[in-house]
Design brief:
This protein is mostly helical and 141 residues long. It has a domain of 77 residues: Cytochrome c-like domain (Cytochrome Bc1 Complex, Chain D, domain 2). It has 7 helices and no strands. Helix 4 packs across helix 7. The longest helix has 20 residues. The termini are far apart.
């Protein structure tokens, strides 16, 4: 066999392979493949839609004691930064004399750059903060 015959044979083989690759797939093959690789299941998002559509139940307001125990106890139990200690009538007396509205305002806005606004309870409602002040004042009276 000559070099020229060998080159022709190689060219014919490559052409046949290319033509075979370009030929359309036999009938049903694409649908069979699609069926084999189709997802077994799906995501049911109807529950997510129901949750998103349902109105949120209003949370019960926290008690003054609960807010105090979570946010205020660190400073008001130890007296840190001059905070009046819980139940200390002497420390609370001048503050109580100013009236509850002044105490509420100090709680909402912070005091002298030492007590942070809302006593660090940024998700507390005004009513919850008032209940907390009332709780602490009642312990000092």
């Amino acid at each position: 066999m000559t070099v020229l015959s060998s080159a022709r044979l190689t060219l014919v083989a490559v052409a046949a392979a290319l033509l075979a690759a370009c030929a359309p797939a036999p009938e049903g093959t694409r649908s069979e493949i699609a069926e084999r690789i189709a997802p077994v299941g799906g995501v049911d998002s109807s529950a997510m839609e129901m949750v998103a559509a349902a109105p949120a139940a209003p949370a019960a307001p926290r008690s003054g004691e609960a807010v105090y125990s979570t946010y205020c106890v660190a400073c008001h139990m130890s007296g840190a930064a001059g905070a009046p200690k819980y139940g200390d009538a002497t420390a609370w007396a001048p503050r109580i004399a100013k009236g509850k509205d002044a105490l509420y305002a100090s709680t909402y806005n912070g005091l002298n750059g030492v007590m942070p606004a809302r006593g660090t309870c940024m998700d507390c409602s005004d009513e919850e903060l008032q209940a907390t002040v009332d709780y602490m004042v009642a312990a000092a009276e």
